[in-house]
Design a protein that fits this description.
This protein is α/β, with parallel strands linked by helices. It is built from 15 helices and 16 strands.
Amino acid sequence: MQSVSTVEKIKNYLRTLFKIRKKRRLGLQGSKPLVNAYLILDRLKMQVTLDMSDDLWEWLALQGWREATVPNDRRKYTLLPIQSFSAICLASREERDMVYLDILSVEQSKDFKLKEKRTPQRCEAKPSINAYIIRDRLKMKITRIMSQELWEWLMLQEWREATMTNDRRQYTLLPEESFTCIFLATKAEREAVYLNILRAMHKSEIKKNEPKPLINTYITLGSLKMMVTLEISEELWEWLMYQGWKAATMANDRRHYTLLPKQSFDTICLASPEDRDAVYLNTLSVEHDQHLKIKKKRQLGPCDSKPLVDAYIIRDNLKMKVTLSVNEEQWKWLTLQEWREASMPNDRRQYTLLPEESFSAIVLASEEEREGIYLNILCAMHQSEIKMLQKNNDDLPKHLPLVSTLLNKFTL
């Protein structure tokens, strides 16, 4: 066994020496990973510890994360802390970018401390105007005369003056106004301004090299596909990219898409910027309703016998625990609402479990009150899922997608 490991080491050394290694191409997005699966991004690895929504999986896929499906992957990864995925999953949409960047920055700082890296230059003198400061692979130009206090704060963020004349490392240059924004911010606002600059840089890197699609080409968003039927402006393409749309450039894409009607793009393109959000949401909601009608549902199971106490009953993606014994009339009413006993032992579908008191409230209610209590339970469950998004709904920035409109659109 020792000789085999030695041979493998020699092979790896020769591959590196002669530069015959090929960078693995980014795989297909694939289906949503299950709990306890692993996600990878370059040399990072993260464990899925919670059930994720389709929206979160689309967002992670846009960042480049893919499920680790290679059985004997010999590449070495840096495993993120187990609470990383939980922090991203539980964050609201507006906070997700900041939480994600914080996790990556913390992990990156740890990684650089473990590696043998160039010792940061501890210079007492402040950099002069038009000099450059660097941090990891970022570069920023000094456009104002800064105070000693600001320079010490930047050094705490691991920024150092770029004093090497022939530095062959590749840096990402931040916009020139970045330093001015940090310089003009107060001490209380400085950290938030700094994080906003990093987030904007991160988004621009995601969207760079995304040319405007031509007429008769396709753009995709998750499992949706739309044909570009008119000439698209730069402003409209930036708006569509912010909604998550991207050009379909893969030649042999085996994923199944739902093709929107041809007039969908015309309607969005011809709408004014003020009406565009409403038109876009209306187009998606109509397609959503049609998709639900066409979608093939799993056939309802038998409903002959009543479920026992502590059993579970299911309806679509909802699950409820039987906490009290039911009579024939009560069980017949539940079966009319399409509830069935969960009899499949290894059901891999993901369900939303209703609170334990839900079943008691339905069973103990009178026949006249039962339907009203049942609808209230469904509404309360739905509102609890979107509680984080509804919080501070009026304070959402105007450039974000219309989360509030979407919530009102799809609320029961």
